[in-house]
């Protein structure tokens, strides 16, 4: 095995992650763009560095199954899989523990969370040093190829991240397989580094395909939507509305960024929607500029404001 890293590199990377900086690191699948999953600001910085036009929920990386169990309620069927395949290129989606203390932006506001225990020795060492869940999508700009070497990472992200731990070439070279659950039945959400047949053979459980599965509410839904109605591009709240502001927004119940900073606004978006949703009143939202993370914020807001199936019917 190559050994291009020292204890000092790992310490420095762990320290950077703890203060909210971004560090790319190797896993057995691809290089991940890591940030502290408990920090809204660090997670917003991940989306900004990737230039992602939307907020997908991210995979959280932890050192072992015990750390994963502190974040999510793993059903029995999930435990059978994690005993067999962790550490390794398997990601499990399970319901999030309320007390886990994660950034809502990391899970895109969903009640579920994707967890993975990578086997790469450098990823393992880093996660043990940080002892916090690390959100890490592939370390490439949005729309570009996933990186399998430190050089690939730097070619796409130099100047946008604090650094990259060089662990050589990723042996698997393909993202992890993602499995969710429909009750106790495992469901294939993303094919990846472990083949479906191998999972079925070694766990003895047949995998359902995501499209055919009867999905429990929230389990496979890809996006959180607030219960309250949203009115976008509002300059002020009308009677009965609460106002979610951006920039100069007099009377805003919450202002995503009084200074008009889209990265700060992204960091607060999901928390703000959850908080305002408690009030049960319709939400008026300031215009957000279509620049940088503003595009992802607007994508999310447009989905949240889109007509819903229940709008077609008169039933409650
Ligand atoms: O191999 C990998 O998994 C790489 C390396 C770096 O570990 N990571 C990776 O992470 O691919 P990421 O964050 O790009 O994966 C995000 C995908 C989402 O597009 C979605 O498909 C799935 O993970 N996901 C995350 N949270 C989910 C949830 N709560 N429910 C369903 N799918 C979820
Ligand atoms: Mg990717």
3D architecture notes:
The chain has helices at residues 7-18, 40-50, 65-69, 76-85, 121-130, 150-157, 196-203, 262-279, 293-305, and strands spanning 23-26, 31-36, 59-61, 72-73, 90-96, 112-116, 134-135, 163-164, 177-182, 185-190, 208-209, 230-231, 242-245, 254-255, 283-285. It is α/β, with parallel strands linked by helices and 316 residues long. The strands form two sheets. Strands 1, 2, 3, 4, 5, 6, 7, 8, 9, 10 and 11 form an eleven-stranded mixed beta sheet that branches. Strands 12-15-13-14 form a four-stranded parallel beta sheet, with helices on one face. Helix 8 (262-279) runs parallel beside helix 9 (293-305). The protein is globular, with a radius of gyration of 20 Å. Magnesium ion (MG) binds next to loops.
Write the layout of secondary structure elements.
Elements: H1 7-18, E1 23-26, E2 31-36, H2 40-50, E3 59-61, H3 65-69, E4 72-73, H4 76-85, E5 90-96, E6 112-116, H5 121-130, E7 134-135, H6 150-157, E8 163-164, E9 177-182, E10 185-190, H7 196-203, E11 208-209, E12 230-231, E13 242-245, E14 254-255, H8 262-279, E15 283-285, H9 293-305
Parallel strand pairs: 1-8, 3-6, 5-9, 10-11, 12-15, 13-14, 13-15
Antiparallel strand pairs: 1-2, 2-7, 3-7, 4-5, 5-6, 9-10
Helix pairs in contact: 1-5, 2-8, 8-9
This protein binds threonylcarbamoyladenylate (TXA) and magnesium ion.
Residues 137-138, 146 line the site of magnesium ion (MG).
Summed up, the helix count is: 9
Q: How would you name the oligomeric state of the polypeptide chains in this document?
A: single chain
Low-confidence stretches: 213-222
Distinct ligands, ions and cofactors found in the model: threonylcarbamoyladenylate, magnesium ion
Rg, please? 20 Å
Distance between the termini: 61 Å
Mean pLDDT: 90
Estimated structural class: alpha/beta
Portion in beta strands = 15-25%
